[in-house]
Structures are given as structure tokens and as C-alpha cells.
Amino acid sequence: FCSHSQLFFSMSGFQYLLNQGEKMITVTNVSLNFSGTTLFKDVNLKFTPGNCYGIIGANGAGKSTFLRILSGDLEPSSGEISIPKHMRMSVLKQDHFAYDEFTVLDTIIMGNARLYEIMKEKDALYAKEDFSDEDGIRASVLEGEFAELNGWEAESDASRLVQGLGFDVDMLYKQMDTLTGNQKVKVLLAQALFGQPEIILLDEPTNHLDILAINWLEDFLMDYEGTVIVVSHDRHFLNTVCTSVVDVDYGKIKMFVGNYEFWYESSQMIQKIMKDQNKKSEDKIKELQSFIQRFSANKSKSKQATSRKKLLDKLTVDDLPTSSRRYPFVGFTMDREPGKELLYVEGISKTLNDV
After folding, report:
1. What was the pLDDT predicted at 259?
2. d(CA 119, CA 142)
């Protein structure tokens, strides 16, 4: 029999799993074809809260395309993506000119579209000269929803985001069209992180960030309780923030639990095991073929040769799939031996701006 504490623990665990299931992103039998070419097929994955998933792969393998499928921006050729309707998804925008007519503050708050809509409707209502009873009722409803969405903290939340990314607070009140391209990238990243969405999708978020901003982003994502799915070529960043790696290669998408370093070691081990198995099969095939050729005409050995022929028919060598990754070789050759003394200087001075 279970004690009350055991029963409570069991029920609590069941409730936790139930809650996780209600917040899970499920990818079922997803395939994508472009102009007769299959990017990936039969993808089955699950993404759960509290985890950061790093999507990796060669250029052109389909990383960003898969992210677009998850965001709903692109339909797969087959299969389906299941995301609970109550979960809010935030996506790092790529169009640097889409918000040029807005201030930085408005652009960031637009990360929570519903909150921004409420703010604009409230402003329009309170600006009316003939404010009616119906307007008052509507304003009351909006104020309630505004408070539920932490609207009163929106400006301070936006301020913390821009400061974390290396800006002064004054940046919030500038027009987007006055910013440089790099500054706009940071503002759009702040927009994607704003308002505690349940799901965050980021495509190359560390581009144009300095080391301090990257460190801040790493801390932000490691403390984040929702689901993060990120495409990045920054191995150090992936190694720091990811709890799982989603590898797009061989026309498939597979998930590995662990950070980038763990994925790399695991993938290399899998390749080695497959190559070793093939090598053993090839050696065994050569051994059997040699025996059969030597003794097939020998009456005393014919039964053994026949037995080995049956064994040979059962042996196969699996074709190793071709990876889409390419590892370029960079090498330097010496024209001559450098000698023991590479550089000798004496009495060097330099003047810069009269200093």
C-alpha cells in the first residue's frame, strides 16, 4: 500500500507531466520538399518548457526553414506541428526596416501584440472628447487586461532589456529610422524577449552583438522558464545555453539531449561505431569469399563452402549516409625554415596625436 506522502508525490508527478504535456510543441511526421528536392522527411520531435534547443547544420541544410515551419510562417509538405493555442510565441524578426515609423519603446512592446493593441485602444478612448458610458465600460475591461499582461511594468521591462543589450535608457524614445543596422538588430532581439512569451524562436541572435551583450543574452536564456529554440553558428553560445541539440543533416532532423559539445562527441562516436561495424562486415565478407573460392571445388570441404555461402548471403555492408557538412582544410606551408631568431627590434618609437 502507498503512504499518503507517496500518493501525494505520485499525484504531483502526474500533474507535472500533465502540465508539461499541455505546454509541449509536437512535431509529427513533418517533411519538406522544394522543387523536387527533399530537405528533410519524417521528422518527429517534442519541445518542452524549461529547455533551450539549438538547431545546427550546414548552410542550406534547412535550419532556418525548419524554424519558419515551427513559427507557422511556412507550411510543411506533409505532417503537422501542434502548439497549444494558449501559448504565446515570440519570433526574432529579420526585417530591419519594418518598424522605422515607430519609437524603440513601441517596437519592443510590440513583442506582445495584444498588450500593444490594448495600449493603443486605451489611448484612443481616453483622447475622445465625448467619452461615453460605453467607453468607460470598455476602458475598464481594457485596464483589467492591461494589468494582467503586466502593462504597468512594460516600460521598465523594456528598459532592462535595452540596458542588458548595451544601450542607455534614452534609446527607448528614439525613432527606429534614426538607428544604425546593428542597433536595430538589438532592438528586434529585445522585442523577441519582451513580455515573457511561452515560446521564443531565435534565428542567429548573436549576430552583431558584442561579447558583453552575448553574455547577457546567455544569462537571460539560462534563466528563462519557457521553451527556447535557436538557430546559431556560435558554438560557444550553443554550448552555454542549450540543453538539447537538434541536428539537421542527412535529410533528417534528430534531437540529442545535452549541449553542443555533447552532441559533437556523440555524433562522432555514432559515426565511428557505424564505420567499425562496416569494417568488420567487409573483413568477414573477404574471409568467406576467400574460403569459398579455395574450397568450393573440394568435395571434402564443399559442405563447409556451401554453409559459408549462406552466411555470406546474409552479411550486408550498410551505405553510410552522406553528410551535408563540409569541413574546409586550411593549411600553411613554409617557404624556408624560420631559424632560431624570428624577430629582433631595437630603439623603436611611435608618435600618435603628438603623444
Report:
1. 87
2. 8
